Amino acid sequence: WHDGVKALALAAALVLCLARPEAAGRALRFDLSPLVGDADLVVEVWAEPPAYTGLPLIRLDRLQPDVKLPAGSRVTARVDGPRGAPILKGPSGAARLSRLEGGSWQGSITIRKSGSLTLDRLGTRAHWQVEALIDQKPVLTLTQPVRIDPRGRLDIAFQASDDYGLSDAFVRIRPVRVPEGLRGHEVFETPIALETGADADGARRGFVDVADHPLTGLDVTVEV
Fold this sequence. Notes:
This protein is 9% helix and 42% strand. By secondary structure, it is mostly beta strands. The strands form 4 sheets. It has a 5-stranded antiparallel beta sheet, with no helix packed on it. A hairpin with a 3-residue loop joins strand 9 and strand 10.
């Protein structure tokens, strides 16, 4: 009420809301934040992708409203200038920003699905339409049948790829008919080194020494 012109504009907007409800949205776009003591807002928003992606921090630009983020990304907003707490709203939840030393406000939410991301303080101060990128399963195919090489090793040639990269792979061997002494312990898994033997197409080759394997001499199934 210290600003008579803005108070008059607010009163007129309220009258307009009653007379023409369809115009209420446009009428209430006045910036009322100076009435409560807010200074000009300085907004910084960034997203921290999940560790499995290996991606760096992603800065969100208010001039680019469409953004793609891996599902599980942690979005943080830091705001300078308001006297009260802004609210960060996302498709999976909302958070009221907490006050930091020095007068800034900061809060975070996790993006789990696609939708609208907004920063509100007496109205929308920033808005993005977020597409949440769901982690895809690795794609793996054998490029030749698994066989025994002349040195008595399993020779395994396969092709593997993933949208964010592979962390590990292994060979799983189990007997077709489980011997009595192995019941409950019949599955054997051996890691395959992924850092060697991969070309640009994701083709890899691994060898597993089975000369002294507990299942040597039995019919087995082999999976990568």
